[in-house]
Amino acid sequence: MDKYEVLKKYFGYSQFRPGQEELIDAMLQGRDALGIMPTGAGKSICYQIPALMLPGITLVISPLISLMKDQVRALNEAGVHAAYINSYLTETQIEKAMYLAGQGRYKIIYVAPERLVSSLFMDFLARADISMVTVDEAHCISQWGQDFRPSYLNIVHMIAKLSVRPVVSAFTATATEEVKNDILCVLGLKEPRVLVTGFDRENLYFEVRTGGKKDQALLAYVKEHNQDSGIIYCATRKNVEAVCELLQREGIPATRYHAGLTPEERRVNQDQFIFDEKPVIVATNAFGMGIDKSNVRYVLHYNMPQSMENYYQEAGRAGRDGGRAECILFYSPQDVRVNQFLMEEKTFREDMTEEEKEAVKERDAFRLKKMTFYCTTKDCLRGYILNYFGEKARRRCENCSNCLDEYVEEDVTRICQDIVACIREARRGYGAGTIAAALHGSKSEKIRTYGLDRLATYGCQEAVSEHRLKEIIGELTAREILRSSDDKYAVLSLQEGAKELLNGTASVVMKFSKAPEKTSGPVKKQARAAEELDARGWQLFHKLKELRLRIARQDKVPPYIVFTDKTLIDMCLKKPKNRTQMLEVSGVGEAKYQKYGETFLECLKKEG
Ligand code: ADP
Predict the structure, then answer these.
(1) Rounded to whole angstroms, what are the CA distances from 540 to 166, 370, 566, 574?
(2) In whole angstroms, how far apart are CA 408 and each of 510, 511, 515?
(3) 10 Å Cβ neighbour count for 517?
(4) 375 and 228 in one domain?
(5) What is the pLDDT of residues 279-295, one digit of tens each?
(6) Which structural domain, as residue segments, surrounds residue 101?
(7) What is the reported pTM?
(8) Are 504 and 550 within one domain?
(9) Ligand 1 mean position to 40 CA, how many Å?
(10) Ligand 1 test: best mutation among 49, 292, 568, 585, most atoms within 8 Å of CB?
(11) What is the pLDDT of residues 443-465, one digit of tens each?
(12) Distance from the CA of 328 to the center of ligand 1, in angstroms?
């Protein structure tokens, strides 16, 4: 069998995704390889196909037990003999797995890095025919990354002990130069094929929503997408509790996840989410590593995360099956302060010097600023993300709220001059809200107490709403004409550029949304609309989903392991009538056909 046949037979796909083929070819030629690809790009297939084609066993090192379980389950469903060996199993089960492995029963074995120091396991490796060692989540070997795992260093010793050096391949979604170099050096990859694919995830729609009542907007969104599975990220445990309660009160099958729950509770909640019993999960950033639930249709952020790195990783958990999905961030300026507070509370590793701590703090503050600009920019959001990660992007992607929203451009130089004048005149530092209120001529207690109603600039922008004034102040901050202090008071001060504004040598043109001050309400362009299914098609899709859920519950596997959403959609489009046609559906391979093909054909016949 060649690689295309393997791809079709076991995974049910007829084409490789960008980068996959190059990496597979290198490994098949006995060359080391490093694949840097974003979440959802399809890294697993890159090593699973060579693993099936190389003569011996492939050992996959993976840090996460839940991930291993999922991968092995998916492989066995696809008809591949695979196993995992980790602390989740009892000693007897481990012995049995290793006995079977010794008999040549498995082509692919997943292990946790900690296992590599067990002498029993090393004895097994010494005798076994290991063709390839694959290091998944390879950034864990880098001391630069946030996820450094000392046990990953065991991999190098393990490889050195094998009688014949196998092919070594490594995969990660982290693209920074430091991490890449660490992987190459520490793992000792020999003349590897290094492949970095683009970080764009075309199937994801990005949106930022500002202002208004977050709770209402969030609830409306989740209700509107009640057929879908989604993740809602919050900055704090308290918010997770509150949002989860809000959803449950409204009858939405939601569960929650944060570090304050017992390990048992976390496991149960996570499983309920994965098995689609509770398709919505509200979580802190503690949730997600190692979750490869492929049918997550939306990732909402109730609060702004601390960095673009975090945001893209979390948002990237949507649409792993390649189907359309939405990533929406509900932003309020308050989020900046919450994050500053969380960053102040951060504990550092004990072995860090004061200097190193300062450097980390500075880096964090910088990242938070860049994250805030993402929330306030009127330019293409995808472009902003890609530029942040060092990639060039088209000016407009036509699949984010900024590209799809209609904007009007307005010269706001005059207003900006008044903002600057007001800040200068007020002398003592005030935040954006107070300055906006003074310019608008608010009669509030606060303005009078501070004596701001006696300023020459008081009320001079009466015709402009406070909300709009704050928006313009935000833009001036992003352009670094104003600076907002990093403490919780977020006090404004003037920067160099302010002078040019005042003396009339600079102007400011800003984009404003045509829909005035959009807050809640449905997303204008339903991302789904792009999918080619018509109303009847969707009906059929839901029928197939029900069938999938029944099978999944019966077989005790997550529904997306039976078939992904994308496969079901393809079924609805192609409406196969027999085995041959069914095998043409993307994601239907031999083994899956044997197991489920007939049942789905029957359902299609009945509903068709
Ligand atoms: P990663 O590990 O890079 O985050 P996965 O390996 O989990 O991504 O793959 C994400 C999804 O893409 C899976 O559902 C997988 O089956 C699917 N996939 C991978 N390769 C292909 C392909 N060539 N054609 C279609 N779907 C693919």
Answers:
(1) 48, 44, 13, 12
(2) 8, 6, 10
(3) 13
(4) yes
(5) 999 999 989 876 778 89
(6) 3-196
(7) 0.73
(8) no
(9) 6
(10) 292
(11) 999 999 999 999 999 999 999 99
(12) 23
